[in-house]
Amino acid sequence: MATDFTAEIAELRGTLESIRAVSDPEALKARVAELSEAASAPDLWDDPEVAQKITSALSHTQAELDRMSRLASRIDDLEVLVEMSTEEEGADANAALAEAEAELVAVRKALGELEVRTLLSGEYDSREAVVTIRSGAGGVDAADFAEMLLRMYLRWAERHGYPTAVLDTSYAEEAGLKSATFEVKVPYAFGTLSVEAGTHRLVRISPFDNQGRRQTSFAAVEVIPLIEQTDSVEIPENEIRVDVFRSSGPGGQSVNTTDSAVRLTHIPTGIVVSMQNEKSQIQNRAAALRVLQSRLLLVRRAEEDATKKALAGDVKASWGDQMRSYVLQPYQMVKDLRTEHEVGNPAAVFDGDIDDFIEAGIRWRRQHERADEFA
Asked: Which DSSP string corresponds to 214-241?
């Protein structure tokens, strides 16, 4: 059946207008002007951490404006392309129509991605993210799976040009990782990646089993928003135990000749944070404290949410024990058990191609939030 380009283009324009209404381009322009002024201050780089936040926020906000502008232009160009195709004949007309069809699909996908951003309206969604991956049941296969997931997320960030920093890695004895923690230093990283939190499951023929048996293993992903100074999560000194130790790499190989790595234990909750990526013990302690504060902030928010749900008579858990399966044997499939989104190319997924899973997760979460609002 022939594509009704008139209706399709009208729908694209309607979607873009809805996105504009939520995003408020005029407010974004004002924000760009404000950040540009701050970025031009002569003493900006006296505090590198603040400077990085300002320049990152400026780049991100300008990119949001540019994406809306580019999409408006692409819709206009699509309309022109369709008009040109009606003026052509024979093979030329068919080629023009094929090009218009392809561009329609591409613009629709780009609009969908931009629309998802408007769904990130949670209290901490605009924050940068701290992600921790821990191996679970499954022995050495689980440790290897944890390392596969770390690479997957780092590759995903790399595809988008998002800066990352691996804060801590704890290597397993035979292969893989016991745990790893990294930052994604871009606005809205928390809102975007928070739908990745939960238990991930891998099914494959184990490369570590001499008999070539199929193995099921698990890894947990935790995503928390990066703490900001305005959050004021104060932790009394007597509630923290500080341990220092020597950083080490795979197989116990020393990567540092001093006891610069730091482990903080929050005594009341038992939360433990380790940092070893910096050469300075002071820097590692500051980074560990920031992550500890972030985790406590999320704990506080969860307690507040639990109290609200208890008062409303609803204490259901938000996430199941398992949210996604990666199956390599006896067939090839990655499936999200919440959204039902699935693909048949695990290799691409492990190489960072997870945008469709994230988008489906964000839409799924928003649907459930709306359902709860009207329950």
From this structure: EEEEEEEEEEEEPP-GGG-----GGGEE
229 and 111 within one domain? no
Give a yes or no: residue 343 inside a domain: no
Q: Which residues of 338-375 are buried (b: 16+ CB within 10 A; e: fewer)?
A: bbebbbeebeebbebbbebbbbbbbbbbbeeeeeeeee
* Tokens representing residue 19 in the block: 């996105």
Number of domains in the chain: 2
d(CA 114, CA 68): 8
Give the other-Cβ count within 10 Å of 211's Cβ: 6
Q: Tens digits of per-residue pLDDT, 66-125? A: 989 999 999 999 999 888 888 877 777 788 888 889 999 999 988 888 888 888 878 788
Amino acid letter, residue 99: E
Between the two ends of the chain, the Cα-to-Cα distance in Å is 41
Block residue for tokens 């698990």: 218
Structure tokens at 15: 């979607």
Range of the domain at 308: 129-312+363-374
Q: Are 264 and 141 in a shared domain?
A: yes
Run of H or E including 178: strand 177-184
Residues 174 and 211 grouped into a single domain: yes
Structure tokens at 232: 């004021």
- Prediction pTM value: 0.72
